[in-house]
Design goal:
This protein is of the alpha+beta class. The chain has helices at residues 23-27, 66-79, 102-111, 143-158, 197-203, 206-212, 292-308, 315-322, 324-331, 346-349, and strands at 32-39, 42-47, 52-59, 84-86, 91-96, 115-116, 168-171, 183-189, 194-195, 218-223, 226-231, 249-250, 257-263, 278-284. The strands form four sheets. Strands 1, 2, 3, 4, 5 and 6 form a six-stranded antiparallel β-sheet that branches. The protein has a four-stranded mixed β-sheet with strand order 7-8-13-14, with helices on one face. It has a two-stranded antiparallel sheet with strand order 9-12. The two termini are 37 Å apart. Bound molecules: iron/sulfur cluster (SF4) (2 copies). Residues 129-131, 135, 137-138, 142, 171-173, 176-178 line the site of one iron/sulfur cluster.
Length: 358
């Protein structure tokens, strides 16, 4: 029987966004008529009522210290009606209800060291994962890779010189939170895990580690009379999925953990199916603190796309039109046997459409 006084439910979802929205956005919710792009980093939306709102976008690092946050909020209070929001690519956006407020806001942001841009056909801020800062399994950093690359690509963020929008993502392991991107820089393990047998029995639940392996390469075993695991190295695809539930399955390695670059990923939208990114460069040195080799390849791909794509072609549309062999010719990237996908397990397990199957 239910108690008379039930405890109140604990709500931990996101709060109602309307309370934080600019009053012009609340008043004209779902009544917007058109929008345009007056300059890089600025969008103007005009409502059926005739009201207009300007959005000014600046790039930030994903993980912000409190001093930077206070600076950004002070700028918002002084120059932007006190309303901000963050985009999923770690940009901060300020909304203002008058054109005369736009330039003073941009001046305040730039004089505090922030870069305004990232709209329309620019290179948007790179989406990144946690990296060495606070994840327990990264094989490389995320913030460091993003910082090094954006230092080199900052003019492409500030200006709109690309054929269409470019989304770049990074991912510091092979299996978890990295995303689809026009260009994705992902960790690539090149050898099976090395098992610390002394620790397995103390740390790991062996059945769950066995179950994690997508190719059934892990078996229970005994070493020196202790229960442990063994890996069939011929089957192992070096994905690293066994490492999070069982840290003694050491897969990160300064020499054999490399970076790989994939291109042409795009989420499904109203016009097209999702397109899966494809590997174009592998075995790139994982070379902190500036990752120069990976950055040089990303720049090479971007420059080729900029020179060769037609207006408004995304990277996947451009490659669909010219074909993969022409892509490799134009970028000068070597095509090797490692680019050939001969793993067929994904045919049954991966969705390639938006349909839900049971
Ligand atoms: S991509 Fe992997 S290593 Fe990086 S933060 Fe996500 S789970 Fe951690
Ligand atoms: S690295 Fe991946 S394929 Fe290899 S044993 Fe671990 S889970 Fe299996």
């Amino acid at each position: 029987m239910a108690k008379k006084e039930m405890r109140r439910p604990i709500e931990s979802g996101c709060p109602d966004g309307f309370q934080y929205m600019h009053p012009v956005m609340v008043k004209n919710f779902a009544q917007w008529q058109w929008h345009d792009h007056p300059r890089p980093g600025v969008l103007r939306h005009v409502a059926e009522s005739g009201d207009a709102i300007w959005t000014v976008r600046a790039g930030t690092q994903r993980i912000l210290d409190v001093f930077t946050l206070r600076t950004l909020c002070d700028i918002g209070d002084e120059f932007a009606d006190g309303h901000v929001r963050f985009t999923i690519r770690s940009n901060i956006e300020y909304m203002v209800d008058g054109e005369e407020k736009v330039n003073p806001l941009i001046d305040a942001l730039e004089s505090a060291g922030f870069v305004v841009g990232g709209t329309a056909n620019s290179v948007a801020m790179i989406a990144h994962t946690q990296g060495w800062l606070h994840c327990d399994i990264p094989g490389t950093d995320a913030s460091g890779v993003v910082k090094s690359m954006m230092d080199e690509l900052i003019d492409e963020f500030r200006n709109c010189n690309m054929p269409n929008r470019v989304h770049i993502t990074t991912s510091c392991c092979q299996i978890n939170c990295g995303g689809q991107g026009d260009i994705a820089i992902n960790v690539q393990h090149t050898k099976p895990p090395k098992i610390n047998h002394d620790l397995v029995a103390n740390v790991c639940e062996r059945p769950s580690v066995v179950a994690r392996c997508p190719v059934a390469a892990i078996r229970p075993a005994q070493v020196n009379g202790k229960p442990t695991l063994e890996v069939d190295e011929k089957k192992c695809i070096c994905c690293g999925a066994c490492y999070p539930p069982c840290p003694p399955m050491q897969i990160n390695d300064p020499e054999h953990t490399k970076l790989a670059i994939w291109v042409g990923g795009n989420h499904s939208n109203a016009r097209s199916k999702p397109s899966f990114q494809k590997l174009v460069a592998s075995g790139i040195p994982n070379n902190p603190p500036r990752w120069p080799e990976a950055t040089a390849i990303v720049k090479k791909i971007l420059n080729t796309y900029k020179d060769d794509a037609r207006d408004w072609e995304r990277i996947n549309d451009w490659i669909d039109r010219i074909g993969w062999s022409r892509f490799f010719e134009l970028t000068g990237l070597p095509f090797t046997k490692y680019h050939i996908d001969h793993w067929r397990g994904s045919r049954k397990s991966l969705n390639s459409s938006t349909h839900i199957r049971f």
